[in-house]
Amino acid sequence: MTSSETEQRVLKQSIGISGAFASSGILLGLLSGSQSIVFDGLFSVIDTLVLMLALTAARLVQREGDRRFQYGYWHIEPMVLAFNGSVLMFLCLYAFINAVGGFLAGGHEPELDWALGYATAACIVTFGMYFYERRANQRVRSNLLRLDAQSWLMSALIASALLVAFALAKAIQGTRFAPLTPYVDPTVLALLTLYLITVPIKTVRQALNEILLITPPNLDRVVRAVMESVVERHGFRKYTSYVAKVGRAYFIEIYVVTSADFEAGSIAKLDDIRQEIAAAIGDQGSYQWLTVAFTADERWI
C-alpha cells in the first residue's frame, strides 16, 4: 500500500470514529448537563467536518497539475489547515466565554455518574486513536495525519481533564467542600479552552506562512550555503535564489549570473552543474520543484 493510500485509509477511519464520538459526546453532555462534555462533542464535530476536507485535500495533492492548476494542488493543504485552526480558535473562544458566564452565574452541578462514564470511555478512544495515527504517520509523514493526531491528542487531554475533574467532584460530594461542586464544570471548561487555543494558533500561523509564501529560513540557509560554494568553485559572478514551501511541496528557483565570456561548451555541462546543485541541496520533502537558470544579464534575475 502506498503512502497516499495509507494516508487516505487512516483519515477515513478517523472520520468514522470521530463522527460517532462527536454524536455520543453531545448527547451525553446534554443528558448529564455538562458544558464541558458538550464542548468536547462540538470539538469532535468540527474535527470530523475538517477531516472530510482533509481527505479531499489528500486526494487532490496527489493529482498531477493541469492547464488550470499548472503547479498542482499543493496550496489546498495549507488552506485546509488554516481553516481548521481558525474554526477551533473561535470554538475555544466561544466556550471560554460560556464558561466564564456559567461561573459568574453560580455554576451548575452535572450528573456525575453519566459524566464519569463518558470521560472514561473518551480517554480510551482518544488515546487509542492518537497512538494509532502517530504510528501510521511514522512512515507516511503527512501533515494532515500529523494535524489529525494532534486533534486526537487534544481530545484525549480534554477527556483526561474531565475524568479528573468529575472524579474530584464526585469525591467531595457530602463533604464540607460540596458547595464547590457546581463550579467544577465551568472551571474545567475555562482552563481547557485557555490551553487548547494555543494549538490552533500555531497551526494557523504555520499555514499562513505557506499561503503567503514566506521563505522557510532553514531551507533558505541550505540553498544559500550550496550556491555560495558553487559560485566560488565555478567562478560565476553572483546568484539569486527564491525559496517557498506550500503544503508538502518545496519550490526553489535559482538564477546564476555568469561572466559575459563564459563558455558553457554544451548543454550537458550546464545540466551537470544543475545536478551538482540538486544533489547538494538534497531531497527536502515529498515533492521538490527546482529551477536553475543561467544568464549573463542581471536583468533576468
TrEMBL record:
Keywords noted in UniProt: Ion transport, Iron, Iron transport, Membrane, Transmembrane, Transmembrane helix, Transport, Zinc, Zinc transport
Key word Membrane present: yes
Membrane topology: Multi-pass membrane protein
Pfam families in UniProt: Cation_efflux
Membrane-spanning intervals of the chain: 12-31, 37-58, 79-103, 115-132, 152-171, 183-201
Keyword Membrane: yes
Locations listed in the record: Membrane
Cation efflux protein transmembrane domain location: 14-212
Gene3D superfamilies: Cation efflux protein transmembrane domain (1.20.1510.10)
Classification via NCBIfam families: CDF
The family this protein is said to belong to: Belongs to the cation diffusion facilitator (CDF) transporter (TC 2.A.4) family. FieF subfamily.
PANTHER family documented for this protein: MITOCHONDRIAL METAL TRANSPORTER 1-RELATED
Protein name: Cation diffusion facilitator family transporter
Source organism (scientific name): Candidatus Competibacter phosphatis
Lineage, opening ranks: Bacteria, Pseudomonadati, Pseudomonadota, Gammaproteobacteria, Candidatus Competibacteraceae
